[in-house]
Specification:
With 322 residues, the chain is mostly beta strands. A 6-stranded antiparallel β-sheet has the order 5-4-7-8-9-10, with no helix packed on it. Strands 13, 14, 16, 17 and 18 form a 5-stranded antiparallel β-sheet that branches. Strands 1-2-3-6 form a 4-stranded antiparallel β-sheet, with no helix packed on it. It folds into 2 domains: 144 residues, Immunoglobulin-like (Sandwich), CATH 2.60.40; 132 residues, no CATH class. A hairpin with a 2-residue loop joins β9 and β10. Helix content is 11%, strand content 35%. α2 packs parallel to α3.
Length: 322
């Protein structure tokens, strides 16, 4: 998400008013005067898409009835850093009115630290150190880490909201998935079918390659072969095996092949024996010549393979394109 195009994420440690409890805790260990200290909070925001950022420091007074003078304003991190907007000698107004300082940081800087020390009119001194982090540094964004009053030191952690983080490029529009296409070099092997007319009947054979692709989760297809005489047989399509079914020859015999109730387009599959080539006694000799060629030839077989190929492809949800 582009942080510069939406609301800039902020890391804050808003401590104004929260030091009442801290002041009381310090007062237990020292005199009431030792509760005097500057308050400090940091607000981090991104300034460039490259990840540069800045911290706006808010410097306040713990006292509502006494002003103070800044006697030290030091950048502790990054080394060599500077702040603008405040300087030594500035008056720290009464609580409720704050001073503001700005610290600019580069994308390579992961933490900002500032130390502020003040002196009250009757000689009491107090100092506060504050830190603010980039979000991607793994820190919580900002806190006051230490308050020093005279010789006493109190460590306080104040969690805040998220800090600054480098902008990340927005993902571009997704590209549509390419449509699968069938190319000659990518064709998977398919079963080969043969329909042979013998003098005593019709033989239907299937030769299935071992590496044939069946629908997902299917180890064997079972085709249904039904004759116009009412006889039905099953023809298994099993990778690496040859299977066949035989129908006794009856005048006008024809069959159709289906799978899961849907007829496959193998064309006309008929028993067409040549009377002159049969011995008239039934025999098992295959029919040859033109009569046999019409049914056992390539046209019917190719139509069958094409029909099965389309049928399986449709079940695998593969789209063929021209």
């Amino acid at each position: 998400m582009n942080l510069l195009k939406s609301k800039l994420r902020r890391a804050t440690a808003v401590l104004a008013g929260s030091f009442l409890g801290v002041a009381g805790a310090v007062g237990i260990a020292a005199s009431p005067a030792s509760a005097h200290h500057p308050t400090l909070s940091g607000d981090a925001v991104c300034t460039t898409a490259a990840g540069d950022w800045k911290v706006t420091w808010t410097i306040g007074n713990s006292q509502s009835n006494l002003t103070a003078t800044l006697i030290e304003v030091s950048v502790l991190a990054p080394q060599g850093g500077t702040v603008s907007g405040v300087k030594v000698g500035d008056t720290l107004p009464l609580a409720g009115t704050n001073l503001t300082a700005t610290q600019e940081l580069s994308a390579s800087d992961t933490v900002a630290k500032l130390k502020v020390k003040a002196k009250w009119d009757y000689g009491t001194e107090g100092e506060t150190e504050g830190s603010a982090w980039r979000k991607d540094s793994g820190k919580d964004g900002g806190k006051v880490s230490k308050i020093v009053v005279k010789e006493a030191e109190l460590s306080v952690e104040k969690p805040s909201s998220e800090g600054c983080k480098k902008d990340e490029p927005e993902p571009g529009p997704s590209s549509p998935s390419p449509t699968p296409t069938e190319t000659p070099g990518d064709e998977s092997p398919e079963p080969e079918f043969a329909f042979e007319s013998y003098c005593d009947g019709l033989l239907i054979k299937a030769d299935t390659p071992a590496d044939v692709e069946l629908p997902d989760g299917v180890e064997e297809l079972v085709l249904t072969v039904k004759s116009n005489q009412g006889e039905t047989k099953e023809l298994p399509i099993t990778p690496g095996k040859k299977t066949e079914v035989f129908f006794d020859g009856v005048e006008g015999l024809s069959v159709e092949i289906s799978y899961d109730g849907e007829v496959l387009d193998f064309g006309d599959i008929k028993w067409e024996p040549a009377a002159e080539e049969c011995d008239g006694e039934g025999g098992g000799l295959p029919v040859t010549g033109a009569a046999a060629g019409g049914i056992a030839g390539g046209a019917a077989v190719l139509l069958g393979v094409g029909g099965l190929l389309f049928f399986l492809a449709r079940r695998r949800k593969v789209q063929f394109t021209a």
